[in-house]
Design a protein that fits this description.
Layout lengths: L17 H14 L4 H15 L9 H11 L4 H14 L4 H10 L4 H6 L4 H15 L11 H13 L4 H9 L3 H21 L1
Length: about 190
């Protein structure tokens, strides 16, 4: 029998110093679009793993604030990009809000960039098209299949009234007209103001 090779244990990583902490932060923001909260969590995790060799407390908050001030980290830009990405993939407002909250975007900013009704309806259409729901699927749908379709749309974050309207559309053209009708309603509201 062959003897098993002895595994060398890795030496413990050196504790972080201020310059190395900043290098880690720069590397992180260079690789990922991120938020202040996610950068803060990353740096704290690295400090937990490796320890701190600098004097006093690690300057995590000051570093994150400096990166935000210089534009390396922009919560608003991240929120707009992430929101648009999720909407294009077919997710509704509730799921977009949950994803942004998990990324550390505060409630006021989430509310400020909340998608308009037209964008929400277009997202519902995108999901229906992708999953072959409603007019995008096969015509005869039994009750159980319809319930599965409603559940999938609800999990994606769409409101029940939008789901019902979309599923009630007999053709793809009528579903698309339903989605675009929200733009007319929004334009009328803007003109009234």
């Amino acid at each position: 029998m062959k003897p098993t090779p002895k595994h060398r244990e890795r030496p413990a990583p050196r504790p972080l110093e201020p310059a190395r902490l900043e290098e880690l932060a720069l590397g992180y923001v260079a690789r990922f679009g991120t938020t202040q909260a996610k950068l803060r969590a990353y740096l704290k995790r690295k400090l937990f793993e490796r320890g701190w060799a600098g004097e006093g407390e690690p300057p995590v908050d000051a570093l994150v604030e400096r990166f935000a001030a210089t534009g390396y980290v922009d919560d608003a830009a991240y929120a707009r990009a992430r929101s648009g990405s999720l909407l294009r993939r077919g997710y509704g407002r509730r799921r977009v809000d949950q994803a942004l909250g998990a990324a550390g975007i505060d409630g006021a900013l989430r509310e400020a960039i909340a998608p308009a009704v037209t964008a929400q309806r277009r997202a519902a259409l995108a999901l229906a098209r992708k999953r072959r729901i409603g007019p995008f699927g096969d015509p005869p749908v039994d009750r159980k299949a319809r319930e599965k379709q409603v559940a999938a749309m609800l999990r994606a974050g769409h409101p029940l009234d939008s789901i019902r309207a979309l599923l009630a559309a007999p053709t793809v053209d009528e579903a698309e007209a339903w989605a675009e009708s929200a733009a007319d309603d929004e334009q009328m509201l803007e003109e009234d103001e």
